[in-house]
Write a structure and sequence with these properties.
CATH architecture of the largest domain: 2-Layer Sandwich
Largest sheet: 6 strands, mixed
CATH topology of the largest domain: Ribosomal Protein S5, domain 2
CATH class of the largest domain: Alpha Beta
Number of strands: 16
Number of helices: 9
Structural class: alpha+beta
Order of helices and strands: HEEEEEEEEHEHHEEEHHHHEEHEE
Strand order of the largest sheet: 8-7-9-6-1-16
Bound molecules: ligand DP6
Shape: globular
Length: 335
């Protein structure tokens, strides 16, 4: 651990992508370290990235796209920092992101993955990818999956300290270059129930929760096999089933949690009659915006159908992308 004076002129910059879960993380075995009850599987997106810059400061602060975050929002950042630093190291964290906020793209995953990589560099702690993934998890669980490139498998682990709960890459982005993800921004509202609160409530009250956890642990290795075999039809069916199982489980929570909107579900119903079912799939995180999966040869048909059914609604088309990485710091990046 370098001394405070050694750190006074340091800075670190890292970036990370959002990831979309095909097998969802919805439930924790231990909330303090965001340790999941089940394995999950996801894909990193190649388009939007979040950049985190870290410089010394007298007090911890986070400047997000030029706005200072309020004090109550700092603990997830501090959990990541505290795993590596000794007092009195304080930092100013600058976050710039092109990930649409509150659009169901789990923006916190990209931030915390970039923060973990930047913090390890800043505090000069040499960590391999599994340890970086576990560190990112401390900030937000799904961030564990924004560290490895391409297709990620988050192993739930069994140890109390969480050191065996991290994500590894199933395959890099080049494994399946024809795969496309299309996020449709039907709704820009912030979700009413945060993932952290929603998971807590679901685990405590849903009569479906126990079966949900088992189903995730069964689905995750199967999803990994579909990815390795590039079996789109099997992946598409399993992805839909997972998403709807998660949202059904949320609905049976007390009080009920409903992230889906009638409009989004109706869109899927209509698409089902317009396109072959094995040419596309859709998933939802804790929000109302669908994220579609398809192959490049089916993309024009999917986009044409979306344009007809949801005219003028903004979309983001992405491929599988690389994971979190250090960036060369630019002087102008200093927050
Ligand atoms: C629905 O990672 O945001 O996107 O660990 O409490 O920060 P915390 O939750 P978070 O949950 C993401 C939930 C999800 C599903 C997923 O990404 O697997």
């Amino acid at each position: 651990m370098p001394s405070r004076s050694m750190l006074s002129s340091r800075s670190a910059v890292a970036s990370a992508p959002p990831n979309i879960a095909l097998v969802k993380y919805w439930g924790k075995r231990d909330e303090s370290g965001n340790l999941p009850a089940a394995d999950s599987v996801s894909i990193c997106l190649d388009g939007p990235r979040t950049k985190v810059t870290m410089v010394p400061s007298d007090a911890d602060e986070v400047i997000w796209n030029s706005e200072r975050l309020a004090e109550p929002l700092l603990p997830p950042y501090q959990r990541v920092l505290d795993a590596l630093r000794r007092p009195p190291h304080r930092v100013r964290i600058g976050v710039t992101t092109s990930v649409p906020v509150a659009a169901g793209l789990a923006g916190s995953a990209a931030v915390m993955a970039a923060l973990a990589v930047a913090a390890a560099d800043y505090f000069e702690v040499a960590l391999g990818d599994p340890a970086l993934s576990a560190l990112a998890r401390c900030g937000s669980g799904s961030a564990a999956r924004s560290v490895p490139a391409g297709f990620a498998y988050w192993h739930r682990g069994a140890l109390a300290d969480g050191s065996d709960s991290f994500a590894t890459s199933i395959a890099g982005p080049e494994h399946w270059p024809e795969l496309r993800l299309v996020a449709l921004f039907l709704d820009r509202e912030r979700k009413l129930v945060s993932s952290t609160v929603g998971m807590r409530r679901t685990a405590a009250t849903s009569p479906l929760y126990r079966r949900w956890v088992e189903a995730c642990n069964e689905a995750a290795p199967r999803m990994r096999d579909y990815i390795l075999a590039r079996d789109f039809a099997a992946l598409a069916a399993a992805t839909r089933e997972q998403a709807m199982h998660m949202h059904a489980t949320c609905l049976t929570t007390q009080p009920p949690i409903l992230y889906l909107s009638r409009r989004a579900v109706a869109l899927l119903e209509t698409l089902d009659t317009a396109l072959p079912t094995d040419s596309w799939s859709a998933t939802f995180d804790a929000g109302t915006n669908p994220i579609f999966l398809t192959l490049s040869q089916h993309l024009p048909d999917l986009v044409a159908a979306l344009e007809e059914l949801a005219p003028g609604i903004e979309r983001l088309v992405a491929r599988p992308g690389k994971g979190a990485a250090l960036e060369a710091g630019q002087p102008g990046d200093t927050p």
